[in-house]
């Protein structure tokens, strides 16, 4: 029971729901944390769902050149991952 109550807070720094809210508000610090999460691609209960949701949402946020370059690397790695899975 405690696991389910604390999962959201433990799964993402500051809480997953808060990260989604901050992304919608275009918070640059949250963009940085989200990009790090996407780069590391942690593996735990529901992390794949979170990863895909964060990837979609972060692409809607205006960002500087450094964040955009990081996002492009993430998208390129994801394309390679998807291509490898389909074979």
> What best-fitting shape do the alpha-carbon axes yield?
flat
Count of runs of 4 or more consecutive helical residues: 5
Helix content: over 70%
**Computed structural class:** mainly alpha
Residue fraction in strands: under 5%
What is the alpha-carbon Rg in Å?
Answer: 14 Å
What's the SSE pattern? HHHHH
Q: Give unreliable regions as ranges.
A: none
* Biggest sheet record: none
- How many strand units? 0
**Average of pLDDT:** 91
Kindly report how far apart the N and C termini lie: 40 Å
What topology does this entry show?
Elements: H1 2-11, H2 16-24, H3 28-40, H4 47-58, H5 65-85
Helix pairs in contact: 2-4, 3-4, 3-5
Brief characterization of the structure:
The chain is mainly alpha-helical. The chain is 75% helix and 0% strand. The protein contains 5 helices and no strands.
List keywords for this structure.
0% strand; mainly alpha
Structural commentary:
The protein is mostly helical. It is 75% helix and 0% strand. It has helices at 2-11, 16-24, 28-40, 47-58, 65-85. It is flat and about 40 Å long.
């Amino acid at each position: 029971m405690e696991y389910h109550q604390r999962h959201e807070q433990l799964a993402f720094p500051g809480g997953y729901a808060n990260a989604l809210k901050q992304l919608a508000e275009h918070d640059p610090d949250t963009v940085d944390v989200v990009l790090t999460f996407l780069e590391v691609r942690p593996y735990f209960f529901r992390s794949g769902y979170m990863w895909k949701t964060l990837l979609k949402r972060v692409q809607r946020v205006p960002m500087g050149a450094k964040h955009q370059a990081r996002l492009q690397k993430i998208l390129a790695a994801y394309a390679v991952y998807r291509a490898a899975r389909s074979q």
